[in-house]
Every structure is written in structure tokens, then in C-alpha cells.
């Protein structure tokens, strides 16, 4: 009995170590703050650890964990929607370290994009983050968000439209030669 628990704990530890950077990136993009992202990942991993036998046996444990994270984020911000949508300033934003293959990280003014992303409503932000940062398919994003593919398409389209409507962001993309 103790050997199985130890093996499960080691499997969970390997999962966390292997997925930590991606989990933190997703949490940061959802929350817009380093400390809030760390709290979200910790809360998510606490919930996942308790159910690791079921999670580890799932076809795609990473998708399961991502769904737990999205749900935890949505629960936390459901009541404080106005505060979440319009932060007073961007001084609390901590910039993530860019991945080498992350094209968005290569943009000249990443902070403008992150600041704009924080202004999106939570569901639009989730859809944009999952579709364009995490590069999930519409069906994978729908599964993670617990909604239909149509809702993902709608939220992503509205979120992208709002991002394109921000003058400074649109100028950065247009003048930078990236469309």
C-alpha cells in the first residue's frame, strides 16, 4: 500500500516538474500578476494532488489540470469581476520570461499586449489565452473552459476584436510589420 502511494507521489512530482513552466505561463496570462499566478497554480495542484489517481489515469492529464485551473480562476473572479477587468495601473504586472519559440515574446512591446489582455472580460481572456498562447484547438479550449466550441469561437473573436481596437496595440502591430 505504501509503495503504491509513493509511486503515485513520484508520478505527481514528475508531472509537476515537467509542466511547471507551462502551468505558470497559463496562470500568468489568466491573472496578469506573478503572485496571483503562483497562487492559482498552487491551488490547482492542491486539488489535482488529492485526485491524482484519477487524473494520472486520464487520457490527457495536462488537459484535466488545465480545466481545474480555468475553473479555479473563474470561481475566484466571478464575484470581483469589475476589479478584475479594470486594474488601476499596470505596476502589479510582472512579465514572464519568454520562451524561445514563443513568437509573441518576440514582439517589441510585450507589456502593451499583456496590459491589453488584462482588460478583456474573463471568458474572452480565457479563450484568447487558450487558443493563441497555448495553441489549443477550439475543441480542446472548449473542454478546458467547460463550454461549447461555439462559445470558444465567439469569445475568442470578441477578445481579438477588442485587442485590435486598442489604438496603441494596433499601431504597434501595424508599424512593426506584423499583421
From TrEMBL:
Residues 112-163 form the RNA polymerase sigma factor 70 region 4 type domain. The keyword Zinc does not apply. Residues 21-80 form the RNA polymerase sigma-70 region domain. GO terms for cellular component: DNA-directed RNA polymerase complex. InterPro entries: RNA_pol_sigma-70-like, RNA_pol_sigma-70_dom, RNA_pol_sigma-E_actinobac, RNA_pol_sigma70_r2, RNA_pol_sigma70_r4_t2, RNA_pol_sigma_r2, RNA_pol_sigma_r3/r4-like, WH-like_DNA-bd_sf. Keywords: DNA-binding, DNA-directed RNA polymerase, Sigma factor, Transcription, Transcription regulation. One of its GO terms (biological process) is DNA-templated transcription initiation. One of its GO terms (molecular function) is DNA binding. Gene3D superfamilies: 1.10.1740.10, Winged helix-like DNA-binding domain superfamily/Winged helix DNA-binding domain. Belongs to the sigma-70 factor family. ECF subfamily. This is DNA-directed RNA polymerase sigma-70 factor.
